[in-house]
TrEMBL record:
Organism: Maribacter polysiphoniae
Keywords noted in UniProt: Kinase, Transferase
Name of the protein in question: AMP-activated protein kinase-like protein
Domain of life (superkingdom): Bacteria
Organism ancestry: Bacteria, Pseudomonadati, Bacteroidota, Flavobacteriia, Flavobacteriales
Pfam families in UniProt: AMPK1_CBM
Cited InterPro entries: AMPK1_CBM, CBM20, Ig-like_fold, Ig_E-set
Domain CBM20: 8-98
Gene Ontology molecular function terms on file: kinase activity; starch binding
Length: 98
């Protein structure tokens, strides 16, 4: 798994690319604070090598809790900036700091 951040000089946003190796998965989405935990519109595209990838424009100078939704199961990002306990979910979420 991996996250790539590209800050734009012309706008207060960061292009964040999420990469998830999941050859056997049918559907992968990234859900979090930035999209109200809704997988609609945040589905990652499956590449020929079995990796799922997607880029999103997120406002910078923010912190977001997020997880991947892989075929209906929540998975944390191994390379997250940090992790934070979430009482509602009863588990730790990955945190993205921009």
């Amino acid at each position: 798994m991996g996250i790539a951040k590209k800050y734009l000089k012309s706008k207060p946003i960061c292009k964040v690319t999420f990469t998830v190796p999941a050859e056997d998965a049918k559907k992968v989405a990234v859900v979090g604070d930035f999209n109200n935990w809704n997988p609609k519109g945040s589905t990652l595209k499956k590449l020929k090598n079995g990796t799922f990838k997607g880029t999103f424009d997120l406002p910078k100078e923010n912190t977001y809790e997020f997880r991947y939704l892989v075929d209906g199961d929540y998975v944390n990002e191994a390379e997250a900036d940090r992790y934070q306990w979430n009482e509602y979910a009863g588990t730790e979420n990955a945190v993205l700091e921009l």
